[in-house]
Design brief:
Length: 270
């Protein structure tokens, strides 16, 4: 039997209604009863992730912001934190403006964006546990610096693939950033060396669990390192093709209680 299961939230553990199915929850409880650990590993912010982590594993570390933060309830604080410098944020915003691209940035609890992002935020963030602060374009450009915000992630949103590609190329040329796509039309920007795989190593070290004894499940590019680093990496049936190509196995979709299938197919085996 495996010792730890790391699960992404959106598109993986959660269905399109942002709910955990009863089948998934019951399987998680069964795995835990047999001694297994389940941890949340998401791109969501701390508050939005904590809502679900408290339902399934309130006493275990939680990975949020794609691995920029690892929260450990045992110490009631973050045991791992890697943020963007204000200079890096300035570079990212300059690239956004050069490409006329919408962006938003996060601190621990709040998303900062312009009014032009209101509809997109409603669709992609799901509303749960998210605090929103809408600013003018000019105010958004400097608010993080004026308020001395600790920013773990900045996100671009565009329905134009060419625009998003141009932004990505510019960021890659600038260097010093970790980039990942979590949804179609969304590009997430973190500090270099931030990823879920590295954060999973941190969790395993704190829990004394070998990486070989872990299973990780996800659906998008931001799950790739976690899928690759885990002892067994599972891609969702509704996941990105690139993730499926590097996974050890592919399961069903998030509308078919995939985590239940993963637990009884891969986590319980001897």
């Amino acid at each position: 039997m495996k010792k730890l299961l790391a699960v992404d939230l959106d598109g993986t553990l959660l269905n399109s209604e942002h709910e955990i199915s009863e089948a998934n929850l019951n399987a998680i409880r069964d795995f835990q009863h047999r001694g297994g650990a389940v941890v949340v590993a998401t791109g969501r912010n701390f508050q939005a992730a904590a809502i679900y982590a408290e339902k399934i594993s309130p006493n275990l570390p939680m990975i949020c912001f794609n691995g920029a933060y690892v929260y450990d309830p045992e110490i009631k604080d973050f045991c791992h934190r890697r943020i963007l410098s204000h200079g890096q944020i300035e570079t990212v915003i300059s690239i956004a403006e050069a490409n006329d691209a919408l962006y938003r940035y996060y601190d621990r609890d709040t998303i900062y964006a312009t009014e032009g992002m209101r509809e997109a935020l409603s669709k992609y963030e799901g509303g749960a546990g998210v605090k929103l602060c809408f600013l003018s374009d000019e105010a958004l450009r400097s608010y993080y610096r004026e308020k001395k915000l600790e920013v773990p992630k900045l996100v671009f949103h565009s329905q134009d693939p060419k625009q998003l590609k141009a932004v990505r190329v510019a960021l890659e040329e600038a260097g010093g950033f970790a980039l990942a796509q979590s949804w179609e039309g969304v590009l997430e920007v973190m500090a270099d060396q931030v990823d879920k795989g590295t954060a999973l190593r941190v969790v395993c070290q704190r829990l004394g669990i070998p990486m070989e004894e872990t299973v990780a499940v996800g659906d998008q590019e931001n799950d790739m390192t976690m899928i690759q680093f885990a002892g067994l990496g599972i891609a969702m049936g509704n996941g990105a093709q690139a993730l499926k190509a590097c996974a050890d196995a592919v399961t069903v979709s998030n509308h078919e209680s995939a985590i239940e299938k993963v637990i009884y197919t891969y986590c319980m085996e001897d």
